[in-house]
Amino acid sequence: MSKIIVAGAGAFGTALALALERPVTLTGRNMDEIIATRRSPRLPDVLLPERMTLTATPDVGPEDILLVAIPMQGMDSYLAGLGAVPHAAIACCKGIELKTTRGPSAVIRDRLGCASAVLTGPSFASDISQGKPTALTLACEDLALGGELQALLSSDTLRPYLSDDPVGAELGGALKNVVAIACGICMGARLGESARAALMTRGMAETHRLALKLGAKPETLYGLAGFGDLALTCTSAQSRNYAFGFALGAGETPAEGKTVEGRATALATLDLARAHGLDMPITQVVAGIVGGKLTLAQALDALLSRPLTTE
Predict the structure, then answer these.
(1) Between vectors from CA 239 to CA 238 and to CA 244, what angle results, nearest 5°?
(2) Percent of the chain predicted with pLDDT > 90
(3) What would the pLDDT profile of 213-272 be if each residue is shown by its tens digit?
(4) What is the C-alpha to C-alpha distance for residues 73 and 78, in angstroms, rounded to an integer?
(5) Do 196 and 170 form a contact (C-beta atoms < 8 A)?
């Protein structure tokens, strides 16, 4: 019998495991305390139900479904040490690998060679864990397999919409983090709501520019994986990428110990843009700021001094 295994016991992985209305295995690092208390330090107010198996050493079989909620920059090394190949692996992270500019689907394909899908969209772990309604994109090139996974992952509160465009889904999820950092910087520096709206709009244009070049479908970027995720992440302090940018814009030191996928993604995206001869100014200034090559004043000047053009 196949099992559903969620790899990654952080906030999002734990929330996904909670949302699934069926037996599920949750695994990750530092599981001893979670096993002993049946509480996650990332979601301390939630008692993990008995239907959830907690383990540091999952038994992954060829019929199992693996949800990979590992941060993008550690995903390949985790899969390399897995020692088994599941029936299908679903990427639940949002980013681009800095070393190789690969997305999560390519990492799964290269490392495991099994069928893959991407689960992404506008979602906060706290909302999912509290049973609040959440709609996501489930993208899989094989729509028959995608339909099976959709049925497995859907619940009364978690609604995955099926897509056959994993490239667009994962790029929408990755690049909105870069735009969210920019929007956070904007609001932290008190540049105003109008400036944030401009960044979101032009950031969406940059996302389209790169994603379409890499084979994404435009409709994916207008959906949950694109516009939906962008709207949520660029306007809420719950977003780690937005909060990181806000601290930078306010001249504060960002909080430590939280994964901010947009930092590495900005650098990786800039490499992709240059390789394809694309102009992505917002990505460029965010990469400059997080890479320590630009000050906030220099970044603002770089954006405002660009030549006037058509939209």
Answers:
(1) 110
(2) 90
(3) 999 999 999 999 999 999 999 999 999 999 999 999 999 999 887 889 999 999 999 999
(4) 10
(5) no
Residue among 3, 94, 99, 176 flagged as catalytic: 176
In what order do the strands lie in the sheet containing 134-139? 52-55, 24-27, 4-7, 65-68, 88-91, 115-120, 134-139, 158-163
- At 1, is the pLDDT very low, low, confident or very high (cuts 50, 70, 90)? low
Note the residue count of the chain. Answer: 311
Q: φ, ψ for residue 181 (rounded to 5)?
A: -60, -45
**Helices 281-290, 261-275: crossing angle, 10 deg rounding:** 130
Phi, psi of 108 (to 5 degrees): -60, -45
Could you list the beta-strand ranges (E) of the chain. 4-7, 24-27, 39-40, 43-47, 52-55, 65-68, 88-91, 115-120, 134-139, 158-163
- Local structure of 301: helix, strand or coil: helix
Query: For residues 167 and 103, is the Cβ–Cβ distance under 8 A?
Result: yes
* pLDDT higher than 90, residue 305: no
Work out whether strand 134-139 and strand 4-7 pair parallel, antiparallel, or are unpaired.
Answer: unpaired
Provide the 3-class DSSP secondary structure of residue 216. coil
Which tokens is 249 given? Answer: 């814009």
What b/e readout covers 105-140, taking b as 16+ CB neighbours within 10 angstroms?
Answer: bbbbeebbeebbbbbbbbbbbbbbbeeeebebbbbb
- Per the listing, tokens 């944030």 go with 196
Q: Which residues contact 98 (CB under 8 A, 6 or more apart)?
A: 73, 264, 265, 267, 268
Helix, strand, or coil here: 287? Answer: helix
Contacts of 146 (CB under 8 A, 6+ apart): 117, 138, 139, 140, 162, 163, 164
Active site residue 176: yes
